[in-house]
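Example 3.2
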Amino acid sequence: MRKKPFPIGIEFYKKMIDKPYYYVDKTLMIRDLLDKGGEVNLFTRPRRFGKTLTLTMLKAFFECELDRDGNIVDTRRYFEDMKIWQAGEKYRSEQGQYPVIFLSLKSAKQPDYGMAYHVLRETILYEFERHSYVLKGEGLTDVQREKYKKMLARKGDTGDYATSLQFLSKCLAAWHGKNVIILLDEYDVPLENAHFQGFYPQMIGFLRSFFESALKTNECLEFAVVTGCRRISKESIFTGLNNLKVVSALTKDYAEYFGFTEDEVLEMLRYYEIEQKMEEARKWYDGYRFGDTEVYNPWSIINYVETAVSDINAFPRPYWSNTSSNSIVRELIETADTIVKQDVERLANGGTIEVEVHEDITYDAIHQSQNNLWNFLFFTGYLKKISERFEGQNIYLQMAIPNDEVLYVYRRTVMEWFEQQVKQKDFSEFYRALAEKDCETIEREFNRQLLETISFYDYAESYYHGFFAGLLRGHRECAVRSNRESGNGRPDLVIYTPSVRGMAIIIEIKVAKKFEEMEAGCDAALAQIEEQNYQQEWYEIGYRNIIKYGVCFYHKECMVKVKE
């Protein structure tokens, strides 16, 4: 049987069903929205967790769609095979009954306010053009009709656009005789972009009026669904919006509708006949927790399954991490003090940290404290909740890194940061000490770097090996070989001059389980160099100045001994 294609990058529900692509049925969210009756529902989830697809599904279900001649289009076929259709007539009767305004703000990522405002204006006007059928018939007053034409002609001023959704709602309600459903996708993208580009006050001034007129003072609103990566403080953008229901990563309601559950992933793997990949998928892409529900990253799972179908032996990849610059993780690491570095080390080695949680932080407050940064990482998917406790008036979350894919982001970011540190710092004293057998200076310089950096792999030998190699690569006059076959075994590191008249430095690394065992570790490393005859290759090449170091580590302590 021919399998359905993978919906990679497909964000429009109708396109998903028409193809048809493989679709994980989330239509029961419609039932929950109708039953719970929230007027303005804000859903915050990490990027690539299906927010846009969810909103286009809601649009396809609720919208009274018209063709070019103004006739109602029957769109029941998009849902007749879905779970919502089996939920009962109460819900089926709501299908295709409402005028719908749908706006995605995800494209407002311009470098200045003028360009960003232009993109927002064009996004708004697209909805005016899509609903221009209201100009036909007798639904609008003359004043409304003229203002609508003014908007279509792009002659509206800033005030017109700031209150445009409220006006469009009135026109649609008048024409249809029913209140309007408003769907706003990625509402926080313009704010995040404005924060990083430096025009946050201008953007928030416009969007405050834009959102409030649409969601607070809109008498023609049936209900609204708003999505974003995180909640922005009500005081900054949703002032006085008392009808706002926030559904965040901490909320138990709607938890299963963003991301894939364990059963949904297993069903997908069985459909594509690769269920043997379940454990690997779980290790890499599971671990997100919304409310009390654990879910998989949907973007990563879809990409992972597609790759596995083509090559069952393909390695897992960090698909989600490649969709963003991960700038917030980089900022955390670049600005980290000693305590934060220890927290990152604990997380990267499988541990947990406890953070006081704040659900509504303004963008301009993100960098006011490390606690705010941890909160931002949690709500954007870089940390998951393990447990929570309530003390005084505050909620405290115990957090961990969700899975191997996100762990890759942290480790990759730490490595890139370390490489930049090596390029910027002067290690000439360290290199001189290596050439002159100055063990005391080598130890001092190495210990200083260990204290300043962030460790991972739980202080395994591979970590110290990579750290040492990273420092040596900054040496412009020497080359470095790592784990290269030599003699009867593999020396950990060799640093050598291009000319055999110079030197070759052989380094063997050990890790002690106790501080008191460090000297014995150095002696064991030097003995291994001699027993394995690591120097033989370099002697045969022509090097006569061959220096041998035994290096032992214990946590952030280093001891160095040289073979005399």
